[in-house]
Amino acid sequence: MRRLVAFGALAVALTACGNPDQQAGRSTVPVAPGSGSGTTAAAPPAPTPASTPAASTPQASGRCTAAVLAAEVQPGDSGAGNRYAKLVVTNNGPAPCTLSGYSGLQLLDASGQPVPTDLQRTPDPGPAPVVVPPKARAAANLHWTVVPTDAEPVDGPCQPEAARARAIPPDDTQPMSLEWGLGPVCGGGRIEISAFYAA
């Protein structure tokens, strides 16, 4: 009987001295390393920066037209029956414009009627784009003779004298009006003209 009592007391003592973790209410399940709440999540990949758009190319200058140009003839040197002048145009528009090529030209009398004009293009200088900023100028060289040719009279004007002229910019259809007043143009009204260049 004493042995049974002693065995029961020993069993109670062993139960009371269980695992210290269980006594404290702590789990004995091992925790995988790195799975705790203090672990920092990996940062998301940085967004790819958007491609920078290429700088816009300035638009090419528009064509110079009679709407923005003012024209005049500036006399040059003369001698041995030859006359020289320049057809000068000024850009009165708000933006640069481009001239490329030859002007048209028609001589007129005081009443606005056509006077014989035979315009001949020369290659010096030849056609090349000329950007004309606002208030800037471009010019074309003019050359003609005052010596009568063929059946033209020699005892008076070889041709009717022009008072005015109409000039048409390259690739345009509208004319510019300008004063002439530089005497008759002999040789049937033959005038040599160069392409426009910066003046």
Automatic annotation (TrEMBL):
UniProt feature coiled coil, ranges: none
Stretches with biased composition (Low complexity): 32-43
Pfam families registered for this protein in UniProt: DUF4232
Superkingdom of origin: Bacteria
DUF4232 domain ranges (all copies): 64-196
Keywords recorded for this protein, A-Z: Signal
UniProt-annotated stretches for the region Disordered: 19-59
Keyword Signal: yes
Protein name from the UniProt record: DUF4232 domain-containing protein
